Amino acid sequence: MLDSLLGGFGILGTSPEMLALFVGFGLVVGVLFGFFGMGGSFLVTPALLMLDYPAPVAVGSGMAFVFGTAVIATLKHHDLGQVDYKLGVIMITGTTIGIEVGRASVYYLESLGLAGGIISVAYVVLLGGVGAMVTRDALKSDGGGGIDHEAADKDLDEYEIPEIAKKIQRTVRIPPMVTLRGDVRVSAWVITAVAFATGVLSGFLGVGGGFIRMPAMIYAIGVPVPVAVGTDLFEIVFSGGLGSYLYGQGGGVNLGIVAPLLFGSALGARVGSAATAVVDAEGIKIYFGGMLVIGAIAVGIGEVGSYIGNPTLELLGLVLVIGAAVAVAFAILYTTVSSLRQTRRQGTTVTD
Amino acid sequence: MPGLEVPTWDPETAVLIGTILLEAIVLYVGYGGLERLFGPYLMKFLIGGEADAR
Fold first, then answer.
1. Least Cα separation, residue A72 to chain B (angstroms)
2. Which of A156, A218, A223, A234 is the most buried (most CB within 10 A)?
3. Closest-CA residue in chain B for A263?
4. pLDDT tens digit string along A322-347?
5. Whether the model pTM is above 0.80
6. What's the alpha-carbon Rg for chain B, to the nearest Å?
7. Touching check for A310 and chain B: CB below 8 Å?
8. Contacts of A289 (CB under 8 A, 6+ apart)
């Protein structure tokens, strides 16, 4: 009974080497997610595509991984009181419909034999675009891209609503209007539109969409940063759960991929999250931006390799995408341990 | 397969997603417990001396 269950879900079909690779990759992805609050999951689907998994399996398993990660992160943010349940519930409908539109597009493109290529191109544009934006912001050192750890520590009352969000709140006053945490009053339709647009992206790429949804919640709806993070994760639990269920019905979720990835990432996220208390994200953000740009180049190289039938290029793409993530995760761990040792030395000197 | 779908009840898929949900909760609780148990020792090992540098 157990054998048939595990075999049916793909666990027994995954070799020990691949299980170890997924645990290790999950650990790296978890460190990045825990530290930057985003960006882990959208390395998973391209890596699976480069490992020659069919597009629905790569996207479906990526989404199921996002679902599991969101469950763990939401439990933590609930404990910190950073979830606006009203906003989350309103967003669930829009995101869920958006995810289903994105998922249907993947299967439609798969039936035309175009899914892998178009999803890879979308990743090149998205990773390259977000990576360039984060790198530019890091060079200018004015924040943006990932969670601002200091902003996340402020009281909700101290948080200032961005000017663009105030303008949207003043101009779009289509009822019903809702009041959110941080005393934000906004049309439910604005919330639904943001949720739908980011849902399409999630369903199409198998990502949580936090790197788009979080800025959208902050700049279009005007919610405080910590509430945007917590609510985004809460909402992904439901929309990602439903998206995974729909992909699962089509055979798109492989537990042999998701379970080891989650096993590694849950541990990595704890380490990455603990590192935020020690290391300033600004110093490492430039590496994060560079990693995304390298990820975009890697997916491009892998896709060219697949198109011209050159396995060396496909392997190079895979090595680059995993190598870049591993390098940034090590940079975080190294800087954390160095900072801790320095703090201890300074403490010892003061005591002396 | 192409086209929008309304989810229908599928026990096997429900068990699959339920397994992922259960794994996530077990990992949150399990790693949390391990962190409390071994966290101070790990800190001591990594930075040397007392683990109060945080």
1. 6
2. A223
3. B27
4. 888 888 888 888 888 888 888 777 76
5. no
6. 21
7. no
8. A131, A132, A133, A134, A135, A136, A137, A138, A145
